[in-house]
Please model this.
Amino acid sequence: MNNDTPPADVIPAAVVILMRDGSNGMEILILRKASGKHFASGALVFPGGKVADADIAFTGEIGESRNTVSILKIAAIREMYEECGIALARAPGNGSFLDTMTVRKCRAAHNCAPLLELAVLVPLNLAADSLIRFAHWITPPSRPKRFDTHFFVAIAPPEQMEPQVDGYEIVDSRWCRPKDLINDFHNGTEKLVLPTLMNVMKLTEVNSVDEAIQMAHNRKIIPITPTLKATPAGDQLVIPEEAGYGVTEIPTAMLRSA
Model:
């Protein structure tokens, strides 16, 4: 970026790290972005995206009091449904998540309305209370497109375990153990943007969903804006020690550019 060019505005965004307990330990849902003009094209990402006007305007039930964080949660829930068809939602007066068939029937009965419209028409309650803050990353000022992204963890709905990707922005999905994904990264078979990498690495420290939830409750959330540091070994991206990831410098050559 030219020094005379002001940094791009940051765009509020939110993602969900969806988790379940598998036979060999905790698994997370990861999606693959389509190649092309999309942000992080071809990379593995968590479900989520930027906050939309509809998220801010939504007045339906969300299971908790409204504040600035609740809008981010609404955005994360909406984006996850749009990208992979999983809806963190409940029927009014019911504490359980909806199952896949119920979600599909509701959508079919209302002309395939988007999730937030569906929540008003059916009605449905969005389960914003099921999301727990896990991290907060801000794209460096040098990047042409910048996001102010909040990461949340959530337990997967027991009856919605089969993601259905949109085939446009998202072309594949899978459940995997964090350790396996990190192994794929180190073997060079998968590339990740820095925030995704660091949060997957953090989750290798736990073995179950309950442990991950406890970790999230205990984490100190600080805004993280990586800075670039030139070293004899190559450029490094630097993050604060107090962010709690156990490392502070990551070689840029390791990462998937976005």
About this structure: The chain has a mean pLDDT of 93. The radius of gyration is 18 Å. The helical segments are 53-57, 68-84, 100-109, 115-121, 178-187, 194-203, 209-218. The chain is about 25% helix and 25% strand.
